[in-house]
């Protein structure tokens, strides 16, 4: 990976809250913001993994903090923001990266399975956005929100629940961009295609390789490439950008519903 194009200390004095920051893409985002001078606050459910991540960041000279919460739980999200107030770690930037799903043909997704995925990806993101905006409003302090979704222009066969939930986040992003502009908040999203993280081990490798081979840029994205896009949207260079979803997908959005995307 090329070194960062951003100037050193770009985010000095800023606190960046990254959900799912202890692993994969979230950890790459935390690393980049930290290297650019930000204090980073990581959240996820797995305490041990969070501690390992903050340990690694601290060794690199980054100020890093961790809170274990489940973003699906409204009470835990509210308590997180109260604790951040108490710890003087009110965030300037929120990155909603936590999320996920299981692969299954639509007809095999039970109502509870559908609900679980919508609850995590759409409701969890919404809960974090609301708590962050209320905090910013109270403090009369603007800020940035960046939501990580999935590339979904061709639909996401095999993941109907995630497709629906992430499309919800894309329109939530547009709507909150309107409503919260007067609060000094911008709200944007990044839609990655397939990104090389450990989490891919739960998907069928042959399917992933076929999907990647069909792309105009036939390779996976690296987590650091997602981080650079997120940093751009949180930077002063993007101060006039709100409500957009940036496709970071190797051109997947150009391919349409090709046979490679046929539902299982
Ligand atoms: C085509 C390839 C594309 C190939 C293309 C792939 C592109 C990949 C791009 C994306 C990559 C990533 O997102 S990587 C990120 C990966 N990380 C993750 O996905 C982990 C996140 N997962 C989770 O947090 C959870 O597993 C989550 C999905 C939200 C479910 O949470 P819960 O704890 O509530 O789940 P449970 O209580 O166990 O189950 C709730 C219901 O879901 C059902 N359920 C759970 N797992 C199930 C399964 N594998 N198949 C069917 N049903 C399942 C259960 O039976 C329950 O329904 P009932 O039995 O009816 O009660
Ligand atoms: N890898 C890929 O190809 C792509 C990934 N994405 C999306 O990017 C994001 C990061 O994915 P990636 O880094 O690959 O995978 P990871 O599984 O490493 O990231 C998911 C993160 O979300 C956290 N998380 C999951 N559920 C909850 C919850 N209920 N409350 C709080 N935190 C939660 C997990 O931590 P914990 O389990 O400890 O809670 C984990 O840190 C996800 O939203 C994913 O869907 C989008 C496009 C492609």
Automatic annotation (TrEMBL):
Pfam short name (any one): adh_short_C2
Residues spanning the signal sequence: none
Subcellular locations according to the entry: Peroxisome
GO terms assigned for molecular function: trans-2-enoyl-CoA reductase (NADPH) activity
Pathway(s) it belongs to: Lipid metabolism
Reaction equations catalysed: (2E)-octenoyl-CoA + NADPH + H(+) = octanoyl-CoA + NADP(+); (2E)-tetradecenoyl-CoA + NADPH + H(+) = tetradecanoyl-CoA + NADP(+); (2E)-decenoyl-CoA + NADPH + H(+) = decanoyl-CoA + NADP(+); (2E)-dodecenoyl-CoA + NADPH + H(+) = dodecanoyl-CoA + NADP(+)
UniProt record similarity statement: Belongs to the short-chain dehydrogenases/reductases (SDR) family.
PANTHER family for the chain: PEROXISOMAL TRANS-2-ENOYL-COA REDUCTASE
The protein, known as: Peroxisomal trans-2-enoyl-CoA reductase
């Amino acid at each position: 990976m090329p070194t960062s194009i951003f100037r050193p200390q770009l985010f000095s004095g800023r606190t960046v809250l990254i959900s799912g920051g202890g692993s994969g893409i979230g950890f790459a985002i935390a690393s980049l913001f930290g290297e650019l001078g930000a204090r980073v606050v990581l959240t996820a459910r797995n305490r041990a993994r969070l501690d390992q991540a903050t340990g690694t960041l601290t060794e690199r000279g980054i100020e890093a903090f961790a809170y274990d919460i489940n973003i699906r739980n409204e009470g835990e999200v509210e308590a997180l923001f109260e604790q951040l107030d108490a710890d003087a770690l009110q965030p300037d930037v929120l990155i909603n990266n936590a999320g996920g799903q299981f692969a299954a043909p639509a007809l095999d997704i039970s109502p509870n399975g559908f609900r679980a995925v919508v609850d995590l990806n759409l409701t969890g993101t919404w809960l974090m956005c609301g708590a962050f905006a209320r905090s910013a409003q109270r403090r009369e302090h603007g800020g940035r929100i960046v939501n990580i979704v999935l590339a979904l222009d061709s639909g996401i066969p095999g993941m109907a629940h995630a497709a629906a939930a992430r499309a919800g986040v894309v329109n939530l992003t547009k709507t909150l961009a309107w409503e919260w502009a007067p609060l000094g908040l911008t709200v944007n999203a990044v839609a990655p295609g397939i990104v090389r993280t450990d989490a891919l081990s739960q998907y069928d490798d042959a399917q992933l390789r076929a999907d990647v081979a069909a792309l105009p840029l036939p390779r996976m994205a690296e987590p650091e490439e997602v981080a650079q896009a997120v940093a751009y949207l949180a930077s002063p260079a993007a101060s006039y950008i709100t409500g957009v979803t940036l496709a970071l997908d190797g051109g997947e959005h150009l391919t349409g519903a090709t046979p490679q995307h046929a539902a299982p």
